[in-house]
Design goal:
With 455 residues, the protein is mostly beta strands. A 16-stranded antiparallel β-barrel has the order 1-2-3-4-5-6-7-8-9-10-11-14-15-16-17-18.
C-alpha cells in the first residue's frame, strides 16, 4: 500500500477539476432560487447505472463480511446496478410572492435509501424556503443537512463512484434497529435468506433531516461568506419525515470562498469551510429480551479547503466522529466481539466510540479534450479510543484507500466514470488472521464503472 500513498501524495497536485464541479456554494444552490428568473416548476432528474467488481478474498472458512460484498444487498462481489434514479422538481411556485421557493425529489434507484423494506421509491427532499428576511433566509422541511463537502455537494457533481470509508460509514448514517439485533458472522456465497448480512430495517439517513434552517450568504469584495444553523429531528427512523424521540439535532456550518469567476455549479474559487453536528440516537444495545432503548450522544464535525480553477482541482478535509460509530451493516448493536485464543477481551463498543478520517483528492481536466483524471487518498481510524480490554487488545482498525479515476464527458450532463480502489484494512493490535483480522484480512481492491445522465 505504501507505494500507492507515495503516488497519491506526489501526483495529486497535478490533478484537476471538471467544469460542472467547480468550487460551489451548495448552501445557496440547494436551498434558493433566483427570485427574478425562477420557473414555476423545473423538472429534472438523474440516472446512474453502474458495474462493480470486488476482488476481496474470503476468510479461512470461505466466509465474507460486508466490506467484501457489494451493497446494498450484500450478496455478491460482481454485478450491475441502477445505483440512483432520481426525479425532482423545483422552482418558485408561488406567483403571489417570488421570495418563496420549493424543492421536491424522490429516489427510485437500488441503494441504501430504498433497499430497507424493499421500497419502490423514497422521498429524499421536500422543502420550502422563505427569503423575506435579509441575512436570515429560512428553509423548512426535509433536505440535506449542511456538513462535509464530500456528501453535501450535489450528487451530480461527485467525481467518484463510491464515498470515502469515513463518509460511507459515519456520515451517510445507518440507524440501529428498534429492538436489539444479534450480530451476524461472515456469510458464504451464494447468499440466501438464512445467512444474509443485510439485517438493516431502516433506510440510511442519507445526510438529510427534517427541520428548520436559517442561513444566508454575504459578499465582501471578492469573498463570499456563508452560514447555516439548523435544528432537526435527528433521523431516529432513517430518511423519514417523522421522529422517534424528543431530542433534536443541531447543525452548524460556515464557509468563506474567494471567488475567481463564473457562477452556479461551474464557479471557480478557493473555499474554506467548517461544520459541526450534535444530537442523540436511541439504541437498544443490551441482549436481555427487554426492549429498553437508551440515548447515546452522536457528534460529527470537520473542516477543510478546496481550490478549483480550470484545469485543476484540489480538496482536503479532516473529519471526526464521537458516538454511534458504525462498524458494519450486520452490526446493528454497534459493537464488535470476537474470541482471542479462547479468551474474550470484551469487544469494542461503537455506541460510545470515536473515529477520525481525512482525505486528499484532486483532478486534472485535460485541456482541449473531454477527459478528466482523478485521484483520492483517504485514511480512516475507527474505534480510535478503544483500549483497556482484559486481554490488553484494542479494536481500533485502520482503513487506507487510494482511488484512481478516469472520466469521459460526452457533454455537460452525460459522462462515464471509471474508478479503481486499492484498499488496505487491518486491526493493528491483532496478529494476522487473529481477532477482527480473521475477517478483515483479504479486504481487497474494487473496480467500478458508472454512467451518469442528467435530464
Amino acid at each position: 500500500m505504501n507505494r500507492f500513498v507515495i503516488h497519491a501524495c506526489g501526483g495529486v497536485a497535478l490533478l484537476c477539476a471538471l467544469p460542472q464541479a467547480q468550487a460551489t456554494n451548495w448552501l445557496m444552490l440547494q436551498g434558493t432560487e433566483a427570485e427574478s428568473a425562477a420557473p414555476r416548476a423545473k423538472v429534472w432528474g438523474i440516472i446512474q447505472a453502474q458495474y462493480q467488481k470486488d476482488y476481496s478474498d474470503a476468510n479461512a472458512t470461505d466466509g465474507y463480511i460486508p466490506p467484501k460484498l457489494l451493497g446494498p444487498d450484500l450478496d455478491t462481489q460482481d454485478g450491475f446496478n441502477i445505483n440512483r434514479a432520481r426525479l425532482a422538481v423545483r422552482g418558485a411556485g408561488f406567483p403571489l410572492d417570488g421570495k418563496i421557493n420549493y424543492f421536491l425529489m424522490a429516489e427510485l434507484g437500488n441503494n441504501a435509501i430504498t433497499s430497507a423494506g424493499n421500497s419502490f421509491a423514497k422521498l429524499t427532499d421536500a422543502s420550502v424556503t422563505f427569503n423575506h428576511i435579509p441575512g436570515a433566509r429560512t428553509r423548512v422541511g426535509l433536505f440535506k443537512t449542511p456538513g462535509s463537502e464530500e456528501v453535501y455537494q450535489g450528487i451530480i457533481n461527485i467525481d467518484y463512484i463510491n464515498f470515502t470509508e469515513f463518509g460511507n460509514q459515519q456520515l451517510i448514517e445507518r440507524l440501529p434497529n428498534d429492538k436489539y439485533t444479534n450480530n451476524k458472522g461472515a456469510t458464504t456465497l451464494p447468499v440466501d435468506s438464512d445467512n444474509s448480512l443485510n439485517t438493516v430495517e431502516k433506510p440510511v439517513a442519507a445526510a438529510r433531516d427534517t427541520g428548520i434552517q436559517v442561513f444566508d450568504t454575504f459578499i465582501m469584495d471578492d469573498w463570499e461568506h456563508s452560514y447555516a444553523v439548523m435544528l432537526g429531528n435527528g433521523n431516529g427512523n432513517g430518511l423519514s419525515l417523522s421522529d422517534n424521540d424528543d431530542s433534536k439535532d443541531l447543525y452548524l456550518y460556515w464557509s468563506s470562498e474567494k471567488v475567481f469567476g463564473g457562477k452556479g455549479p461551474r464557479r471557480e474559487g478557493w473555499k474554506l469551510f467548517g461544520w459541526h453536528q450534535d444530537g442523540t440516537r436511541l439504541l437498544d444495545n443490551t441482549n436481555d429480551d427487554v426492549h429498553n432503548p437508551q440515548e447515546y450522544d452522536r457528534t460529527r464535525w470537520g473542516l477543510g479547503t478546496q481550490y478549483r480553477q480550470m484545469p485543476f482541482r484540489l480538496t482536503f478535509e479532516y473529519r471526526k466522529a464521537d458516538g454511534m460509530i458504525f462498524v458494519g451493516p450486520d452490526k446493528m448493536t454497534f459493537d464488535q466481539n470476537v474470541q482471542v485464543s479462547g479468551a474474550n477481551p470484551g469487544g469494542a463498543d461503537g455506541a460510545e466510540g470515536k473515529a477520525w478520517g481525512a482525505y486528499l483528492e484532486g483532478g486534472w481536466y485535460i485541456p482541449q479534450t473531454n477527459w478528466e483524471l482523478d485521484a483520492r487518498y483517504e485514511y480512516y481510524s475507527r474505534l480510535t479510543d478503544d483500549s483497556g480490554h482484559p486481554a490488553g487488545y484494542s479494536f481500533e482498525s485502520i482503513w487506507k484507500t487510494l482511488t484512481l479515476g478516469v472520466q469521459y464527458h460526452f457533454n455537460k450532463k452525460t459522462r462515464v466514470t471509471f474508478n479503481y480502489a486499492f484498499r488496505d484494512v487491518e486491526t493493528p493490535d491483532f496478529a494476522k488472521g487473529a481477532g477482527p483480522n480473521a475477517n478483515m484480512d483479504g479486504i481487497g481492491d474494487r473496480l467500478a464503472l458508472q454512467v451518469t445522465a442528467v435530464f
